[in-house]
Amino acid sequence: MPRSFLAAIGMCFAAAVCARSLAGDQVLLTQIETDTLEAYQGEAITLTMEVWILEGARVRYDPTGFPELTGFYALPREPAKAEERMAARDDRKYKVVPFVQLLFPTSSGELRIGPWTWNCDIAFRGVARNRELKTDAFTIKVKPLPAPPDNFS
C-alpha cells in the first residue's frame, strides 16, 4: 500500500494512490505529491508541487529548489506554474500556487524524488520573516516493461 509523509507534524498515514509530503505551519505550507507510487518504465507520472499561502499573508518568492529527479525524464525541464486557486484547509482560506511536471521513469527499480525546498519572504499581521520549507523525499517503484508476446514483431 502506498505511504504518505506528513512532515509538518511528523506523522505517517496510508493514502489511496499518491505520495504526499507537507512542510510548514498554518501561514505557509508546501506540498509535493505524485498521482501514483508504482508505474511501468516510461509510464507518465504527474508530479504536483503546491505552496499554500494563508489569506492575508504577503509572500515574495523565486521558485527554486525543485526536487532532484534522478532516473526520470521530466517535461517541462523546470516545473511549470499552473493556475492559482483559492482553497480551504482546516477552516482557513489559502491561495494555492501549483507547479506541475510530467515524469517518465527511464529505468526500473526504486527511483527517488528528492525533497522540494521553498525559500521566501513572508509578512503576516505585521511580522515579516524569511522562511525555508523542505518536504521529504520519497520513492516510486518502477516496474520493467513486460516481455513481448511470442508473435510480436
Description:
The chain has 153 residues and is mostly beta strands. 0% of the residues lie in helices and 61% in strands. The protein contains no helices and 14 strands. The protein is elongated, with a radius of gyration of 17 Å. Residues 1-17 have low confidence and may be disordered.
Topology summary:
Layout: E1 3-6, E2 11-14, E3 20-24, E4 28-34, E5 38-40, E6 45-54, E7 58-61, E8 72-81, E9 85-89, E10 92-105, E11 109-113, E12 117-124, E13 127-134, E14 138-143
Parallel strand pairs: 1-3, 5-14
Antiparallel strand pairs: 1-2, 3-4, 4-6, 6-10, 7-12, 8-10, 9-10, 11-14, 12-13
Describe the structure using short key phrases:
disordered N terminus, single chain, 153 residues, eight-stranded mixed β-sheet, 14 strands, mainly beta, three-stranded mixed β-sheet
Main sheet, how many strands, which sense, barrel? 8 strands, mixed
> In terms of per-residue confidence, which ranges show pLDDT below 50 for 5 or more consecutive residues?
1-17
User: Helicity range of the residues?
Assistant: under 10%
- Mean pLDDT comes to 82
SSE pattern, N- to C-terminal: EEEEEEEEEEEEEE
Shape: elongated
In percent terms, what proportion of residues is strand?
over 45%
Q: How many beta strands in the DSSP annotation? A: 14
Distance between the termini: 36 Å
Structural class by secondary-structure content: mainly beta
In DSSP terms, counting alpha (H) and pi (I) runs of 4 or more, how many helices? 0
Radius of gyration equals 17 Å
